[in-house]
Write a structure and sequence with these properties.
The protein is an alpha+beta fold and 674 residues long. The chain is built from 10 helices and 23 strands. Helices cover 30% and strands 21% of the residues. The chain is globular, with a radius of gyration of 27 Å. The termini are far apart.
């Protein structure tokens, strides 16, 4: 039975390997401190946080998230540690609430590795605090107990850590904020949360170890020190607010707006609050899979997720595959980590006894330990291979069914391309895969309109694919990727609803930009020189200011005649060449304020080229989603935080698809203007 704790109450712990699960209404940072008998921290090495998530006996998430799982092995903590304090803090500089008083009360639960709940504590009564000691695990007379604490700090993490005696509290708090910001940048934005009726009850993420496999106490979960399952899942990003007549709809059918009772407007007419892109009748049921053969899994069907349209079903299905692959890989890695840990423990036991170190007895013990390890790893791999086979079969039917916005450039769907009448819900930026599943590619879909800008990193990334390329070739590939993404953005928007500006100060990108220039899809020829940079940035900055004033004043219809209400994209090549200090400030302003009013940024840049600006540009890089022109493992999923290899969406060599798409986009724009 679960012990429902109140502030100050304690409860005995009968297990030493535990999970601490956190559930909050917004992204929070989870951390933990190791303390001595008096509750003091001896140094920064006694704090587990997103920048240093693992300590002996303890592991926390690398990201801010609404849900976390912390791994604890109390037998593995040092003898000098008498308390393990679990901390929650609101992240700074990445949006969201500033104090816990504006959130629903967080819930912290202590569970066994089998999921059984030992104790639960709801942190009620919080107000202006932005950091809190949720609970602590402490030694008492040779045993461990859990105590509900709920001590909040209005001064944030710095005040909390200082109160526990850490001299470097302010610096460590700053380092934690920086690590959380980096994690936010590298994480693929999560989709809207699935509702209960949207859960397909998939089996691909089944645990790699069963309850009878080797007697593992982890039941498929990761032992202390394993990477993966304990990283919290990112909160979902909802649809962006409608700006300048460009609404964005939710992916979750439960979130679609239904028309209610008409409300009188200022002119006396009714206001219809229904979403223009969503039907108000129930969606038809998803396709039904053909009957499965006895003993075989059901054959996959494209669009078997819940949604109001086939596009939405496919979007949710792709994200379901992404999540399934993340979790089944986490289970496999956890199982392998457990097998490694058990083998090392058994070998240590053999070597600790001088009588069994040498001779037949020692050799037999070593061979037994290795055989058990091989058996566990083989069982885990079989489970992973089974799940991968199902996901590969699903990918084989889903990929050909994707619409142009979701499809690869080599998909035949582009041969039937026509300029759409409405903006799609998402866009494909490339593919993602993991080392354990190299044959399976998951489409990387992000919601539209863009919630943050894109950065094509033209510098050296350390990836094997880029290690043999010189800087000139990397810059060319980065700009080619930017052009391909730009064409795709133009292709998925209705005519007249997406305007592209290009800044190429030195003119070095002329060959790659030629298709955009020749087709006439740009708002103006690429701006060159410092004067051209200043002109474009000034006009777009004024655009952002005007829309912000109109929206805040509730007078969107008061914009100047001829004002371009389309979504705006600024493509910047070879930054910071041609940028003075004022231009850099304007660029930062556009990156920060532009997305909320439909102005987006796409930069082709090597961060090392801008090193002279120092930390001044750190917020700019953090505010953009980093993509690479060659495969590189720099992105993380929003569930378990795996490092995924990103592959850019490149046009096949010799293909004319870009030119064909640009020809249709240009013709549609001319018709729209006429």
């Amino acid at each position: 039975m679960t012990a429902e704790l109140v502030r100050g109450q304690n409860h005995p712990l009968l297990e030493v390997r535990l999970e601490i699960r956190v559930s909050a209404g917004a992204p929070v940072v989870a951390a933990a401190t190791l303390c001595d008998e008096s509750g003091r921290i001896h140094g920064v090495e006694w704090v587990a946080h997103p920048g240093a998530p693992a300590l002996p006996g303890l592991e926390v998430s690398r990201q801010a998230a609404a849900d976390h799982r912390l791994a604890v092995d109390l037998d593995a903590v040092a003898e000098s540690v008498h308390r393990v304090s679990v901390l929650l803090a609101l992240p700074t500089g990445v949006g969201g609430p500033a104090v816990f008083g504006s959130l629903a009360a967080p819930v912290v639960a202590v569970t066994g590795l089998d999921g059984s709940e030992v104790a639960c504590f709801t942190l009620t009564g919080l107000g202006p605090e932005s950091a809190v000691v949720a609970l602590e695990l402490y030694r008492r007379q040779g045993a461990w107990k859990v105590r509900a604490v709920g001590q909040g700090y209005a001064g944030g993490l710095a005040a909390l850590l200082a109160d526990q005696g850490l001299a470097q509290a302010r610096q460590l708090a700053s380092d934690i904020d920086e690590a959380v910001a980096r994690g936010s940048v590298r994480s693929v934005p999560a989709p809207p949360p699935r509702t209960a009726d949207a859960d397909r009850s998939r089996q691909a993420a089944a645990s790699a170890l069963g309850p009878d496999q080797g007697g593992s106490p982890y039941g498929g979960q990761s032992p202390q020190g394993a990477a993966g399952p304990y990283a919290g899942s990112q909160p979902a990003h909802g649809a962006a607010d409608a700006v300048a007549g460009h609404p964005a709809g939710p992916a979750d059918p439960a979130a679609a707006t239904r028309p209610g009772t008409p409300v009188a407007s200022g002119t006396g007419g009714p206001v219809d609050y229904s979403h223009p892109r969503r039907r108000t009748t129930a969606p038809p049921p998803p396709p039904v899979a053909p009957p499965a053969e006895p003993g075989r899994p059901a054959r996959p069907v494209a669009g078997d997720a819940t949604g109001w349209s086939m596009e939405e079903r496919l979007y949710n299905q792709v994200w379901g595959m992404f999540e399934d692959l993340a979790r089944t890989t986490a289970a496999y890695r956890s199982a392998v980590d457990f097998a490694d840990t058990r083998r090392e423990r058994e070998l240590d036991e053999v070597l600790s006894d001088p009588r069994s170190r040498i001779g037949g007895r020692g050799d037999a013990a070593r061979e037994t330990a290795r055989a058990k390890h091989a058996q566990l790893v083989d069982q885990a791999r079989q489970a992973l291979d089974r799940d991968l086979a199902q996901l590969v079969a699903e990918a084989e039917v889903v990929e050909p069914a994707l619409p142009p916005a979701f499809a690869r450039w080599d998909n035949p769907v582009w041969h039937a391309y026509r300029v759409p009448m409405e903006m799609p819900m998402a866009l494909r930026l490339g593919d993602l895969h993991l080392p354990e599943s190299d044959r399976l590619r998951i489409p990387m879909l992000i919601r539209l309109p863009l919630e943050r800008g894109l950065w094509m990193d033209s510098g050296r990334t350390g990836s094997p694919d880029g290690s043999f390329l010189d800087s000139h070739e990397l810059r060319r590939l980065a700009l080619d990727s930017a052009v391909a993404h730009t064409v795709r953005l133009l292709a998925v928007h209705p005519a007249g609803e997406f305007t592209v500006h290009v800044v190429d100060p030195g003119g070095s990108g002329a060959p790659a930009l030629a298709p955009l220039v020749r087709s006439g899809v740009l708002a103006a020829p690429p701006a060159v020189g410092a004067a051209g940079v200043t002109d474009v940035l000034t006009r777009l900055t004024q655009h952002v200011d005007l829309v912000q004033m109109a929206v805040r004043g509730g007078a969107a219809d008061s914009l100047p005649p001829g004002f371009d209400t389309a979504q705006q994209l600024l493509v910047v090549n070879d930054f910071p060449h041609g940028f003075d200090d004022r231009a850099v400030t304007q660029l930062r302003y556009l990156a920060d304020e532009g997305p909320s009013v439909g102005v987006h940024l796409m930069m082709v840049a090597d961060r090392e080229d801008a090193a002279g600006y120092g930390p001044l540009l750190d917020p700019l890089w953090r505010g953009l989603m980093r993509l690479t022109p060659v495969p590189d493992d720099h992105l993380a999923d929003p569930w378990v935080g795996h490092a995924w290899t990103y592959e850019p969406a490149l046009v096949p060599p010799g293909s004319q698809v870009l030119q064909q798409v640009l020809t249709q986009v240009a013709a549609a724009r001319r018709t729209w203007r006429d």
